[in-house]
Amino acid sequence: MVAHDLRVETLIVRGRAEGAFRTDLPIAWPVDVPHSVMHSAADEIRAGRLTADRITATVLAAFTSPGKPVPGPGTGT
């Protein structure tokens, strides 16, 4: 595991323990999601089809537990 993956995994484990992140997926998947989203988003931003604020919205939606409202970027709610 590379250093950035370890940092993301630590964040996810902490977020799960605090009830902030979903727990219904294997840990490897939410570790990979932000990395994959950012790479795909970079291509879409360069092509003019996406704005950077949508990256945060996408990752928040992916990490939010099913049935809970997705928090707004930067709001924590």
User: Order of helices and strands, N to C?
Assistant: HHH
Can you tell me the overall shape?
globular
Average of per-residue pLDDT values: 88
Helix vs. strand class: mainly alpha
Helix content: 55-70%
Tally of helical runs: 3
Strand content is under 5%
Number of strands: 0
Low-confidence stretches: none
Distance from N terminus to C terminus (CA atoms, Å) equals 31 Å
> Could you describe the largest sheet, including whether it forms a barrel?
none
Q: Indicate the radius of gyration in whole angstroms.
A: 13 Å
Show the helix and strand layout.
Blueprint: H1 3-17, H2 28-46, H3 53-63
Characterise this structure.
The chain is built from three helices and no strands. With 77 residues, the protein is mainly alpha-helical. The model has no long low-confidence stretch (mean pLDDT 88).
Summarize the structure.
With about 80 residues, the chain is mainly alpha-helical.
Keywords:
0% strand, 77 residues, 58% helix, 3 helices, single chain, mainly alpha
